[in-house]
Design a protein that fits this description.
homodimer; 306 residues; alpha/beta; six-stranded mixed β-sheet
């Protein structure tokens, strides 16, 4: 049995599309050391995954035989080593049983699977969020509607520890590409000081009432041209339009009910406000805590059962 | 009085954001010569407008004193010479009366105004489409709901020759930035051979039934990951989703009724199909013909009344 000493039990990695995060964890899941970097999947393609992982482990002085558990995009097809999708309905406590061991590495590295939904017309995929959900289930949230905001925000219906269905909205990515590449670019650059709540809340309300997103996007530009005071609200309104569209989509798919929000920081604050505008109860869990907890749980299942 | 000879009566310019088009017109509006280029407003900023115009006139051997009538983005604030917006409701036959004469040019150059809508929450602007609408009015379409597709598609309600209200959707621009900058980029590059109609029509139907756009965008990626046959439909589906969202927005704003589509080529074909899927009658007018006709009408009003 592993004792809670300063000797790590495993390394746990949350390997996203654009970010990399690694923890050295003790036997009780306590964090002994931590690294974060921008070496997400995209930065590691086609073949820098092992090198990046080893560089961070070396920086922390990790033993050469320390096992590593990984969640996220490192397991995508064409990334480091494909961990094929499980399919909905999927038991979230069983992810570790489908972890894939990476070949030709000097240490034992396992990548947890993503989950896909093959329902015709609602095909969907996740890699990374299933690990957060399994962490929530392990903490006792066996049945809930979850919201996991991000570049590709997920809403997930979990019943009795089983992921029944989910829905992804391109919320964060649309915010990013509209900000950077559309006719709104200059406007949003200038507007970045103001993220005031009233324009954000109003935009959420409009989308919940069925306002058309692609028209509201151009309206940001027109309103700014006609009224400079409106220009300063553009970023807050864009955020509210996209998050409002997402919540409207989730209500359409899952109905109205309490939401467990898996987020942190400014993202958590914005979604808490928006979900409350929609009249739904919201309770927030820290996304990073859930990921780390789930990775530790999976690592225990893999390496302590043997 | 001007006779229909080969001596031009005026030059007419449609100066968009990304494209430039110039005609030498005879007294009856007949085209004597024509130039097109990619020297739209963006390519001419901050100060190449006169130089670009003169280069095209010189290439056609136009007289040094030939007057020029211009519609479009050359009249935007910060472009060549601002032609301030008229406001809705706006009489479309009266655009020429608000044309602005460009200062410090050796020839007489007039820029037609755009039109803005100051209605709170529905602020909107157009520059160029008002000229197409005035061309349609001049052809006898005094009352109609118009659809003018493009980077920023417009729907416009005209009654008795007066533009009452309009709605802009960022349809073309979203297609462009999602294709070029989102996670769908690679998929859409590979899929570009197929623009088959069934996937396009289905996507339009989904949006008319209220499907959530930002979720359907991610669904394109998920469906392609899970089923390579679906990948080839991605461009047709993306186009159908965005055009369907636009038509749904227009129906929400203007109700269901016959539509006059101002377009040409592939764009006209796609919108004709999509508008028919929505159960609306559609009659198509050539966008370029309307612009040229309206520019000629405005030129006659300006230079033949004196």
């Amino acid at each position: 049995m592993q004792k809670a000493t300063s000797a790590p039990f495993c390394a746990a990695v949350d390997w996203g599309t654009t970010n990399f995060r690694l923890w050295l964890l003790g036997g009780n899941g306590e964090t002994l050391a931590e690294r974060t970097s921008a070496e997400g999947m995209r930065a590691c393609l086609p073949d820098r995954f092992e090198q990046v992982l080893e560089s961070h482990l070396a920086a922390l002085g990790a033993p050469g035989d320390l096992p590593v558990i990984v969640a996220g995009m490192a397991g995508a097809r064409g990334a480091w080593c494909e961990a094929p999708y499980l399919e909905t309905p999927a038991r979230l406590s069983g992810l570790h049983a489908s972890a894939v061991r990476v070949g030709r590495t000097r240490r034992d590295v396992r990548i947890l699977p993503g989950i896909c939904q093959r329902r015709a017309g609602s095909e969907d995929v996740m890699r990374g969020e299933e690990t957060q959900l399994s962490g929530a289930v392990a903490e006792g949230l066996q049945s809930a509607l979850f919201c996991l905001p991000g570049t590709h925000s997920k809403w997930a219906r979990v019943e009795g520890g089983i992921l029944l269905s989910f829905l992804t909205c391109m919320t964060g990515e649309l915010f990013s590409i509209v900000s950077q590449h559309s006719v709104l670019h200059g406007l949003l650059q200038e507007a970045q000081e103001e993220t005031a709540m009233p324009p954000f809340r109003e935009a959420v309300e409009e989308m919940l009432a069925g306002a058309p997103l692609t028209a509201r996007l151009f309206n940001l530009r027109a309103a700014a041209l006609l009224d400079p005071a409106r220009a300063r609200q553009s970023r807050a309104r864009l955020s509210g339009l996209l998050i409002g569209a997402e919540i409207a989509a989730a209500i359409r798919e899952f109905g109205k009910g309490p939401v467990v929000l898996v987020a942190r920081g400014e993202t958590a604050a914005a979604y808490e406000t928006a979900i409350a505008v929609a009249g739904l109860e919201v309770a927030t869990r820290d996304a990073t805590d859930l990921t780390r907890g789930a990775l530790h749980g999976a690592a225990r299942s893999i390496w302590q059962e043997n």
